[in-house]
């Protein structure tokens, strides 16, 4: 028996089909988001003035202040599935995929401090 599996990548913002993964960095942190053409255009339009005014960082060099920015944000690595499970037990609504809100991550971190 033959099977055909179709994978549809949906837009993380509005759920529309035919999205593509977009990778970007901010404050030394890499991010990925799936965006359809319309939202990719909106994302680029919003960033264009900042990109035009920015300096390109040579490959292999970390942007100045990135480590300090991560420290000040309290950045930490967590198991996203564990955060979602914990949030569900706490009655906090969290999407089944995509980014988890910063306030939820902070509450999870506070609840699991060592």
Protein architecture, described:
- The protein is of the alpha+beta class and 114 residues long.
- It folds into 2 domains: 1-74, 2-Layer Sandwich (Wheat Germ Agglutinin (Isolectin 2), domain 1); 76-114, Dihydrolipoamide Transferase (Irregular), CATH 4.10.320.
- Helix content is 39%, strand content 12%.
- The protein contains 4 helices and 2 strands, in the order E-E-H-H-H-H.
- Strands 1-2 form a two-stranded antiparallel sheet.
- The N and C termini lie far apart (52 Å).
Helix and strand layout, with pairings?
Layout: E1 20-26, E2 29-35, H1 37-53, H2 66-73, H3 80-89, H4 102-111
Antiparallel strand pairs: 1-2
CATH architecture title of the largest domain: 2-Layer Sandwich
Q: If you average the pLDDT, what whole number results?
A: 83
Domains (count): 2
Summing up helix and strand content along with how strands pair, one would put the structural category as alpha+beta
Instruction: Return Rg in Å.
Output: 18 Å
Q: Which CATH class of the largest domain applies here?
A: Alpha Beta
Low-confidence stretches: 67-73
Strands in their spatial order, largest beta sheet: 1-2
CATH superfamily grouping of the largest domain: Lsr2, dimerisation domain
Approximately how much helix is present in the residues?
25-40%
Count every helix, treating DSSP H or I runs of 4 or more residues as helices.
4
Helix/strand order: EEHHHH
**Strand percentage:** 5-15%
User: Span from first to last CA?
Assistant: 52 Å
Report the biggest beta sheet as strand number plus sense, adding barrel if it closes. 2 strands, antiparallel
Shape: extended
CATH topology of the largest domain: Wheat Germ Agglutinin (Isolectin 2), domain 1
- For the secondary structure, the number of strands is 2
